[in-house]
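Re: the 181-residue chain
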Amino acid sequence: MDYSKFVDAVLQNDQSVINKQVKVITAVLIKFLTVRMDASIEDAQDCAQNTLMIAIEKIRNDKLSHPDAVINYLFTTAKHEYFKQLSKEREVNYEDLPEHHFEKPDQLHRLVDNEKMTILERCIEALKADYKKYIEYWFQNPGYETSVVAEHFGISVNNAWTKKHRVINVLKECFEKKIQL
C-alpha cells in the first residue's frame, strides 16, 4: 500500500481520502494485532483507532511525513497501544483491595498464645497423675460427651463432670499464679 496518499490527505485535510485510507489501514492494523500479538478483536479495534489518531496528529504537526516511516510508526504504535491496554487491565485497583490485606499483624497474638500454652503445659505437668491423665484425655477428645469419658475411666457421669471442673479450676489457679510472674 502507498502510504504517501494517506500522508498527503492528512496534510491537505481531504476527509474523503482520509476516510478511505483509514478503513484500509485499520484493517491492516487489526490483522497485525490479532495475528501477531494475539489480541482480541475488540482490543485490536481500540488500539488501531488510537494508533490512527496519534499518527494523524503527528502528521499534522509535521513530526511524521515520510511515507516509508509511516507504516513502521503505525505498527510500532499499535503494538505499544496494545501493551498499554494490557498493562491497564493488570493494574490493581488500590481502592478495592481484598479484606485480607487489611488484617492486623498477628505476631504479637501468636507470641502471647505461645506463652500461655507454655504456662498451661507447665500447669498440666504439675497436676497429680490421675488428674493429668484425665484432663489430657479431654484435650485429646474435646468433642466427646461426658458419658463417653465417664465410661472410659469407669466412673459415673456426675463424677466425670465434677472431676473435669475440679481439674479445670486447679489449672486456672495455677495459670493465674504463673501468668502474674
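The mean pLDDT is 87.
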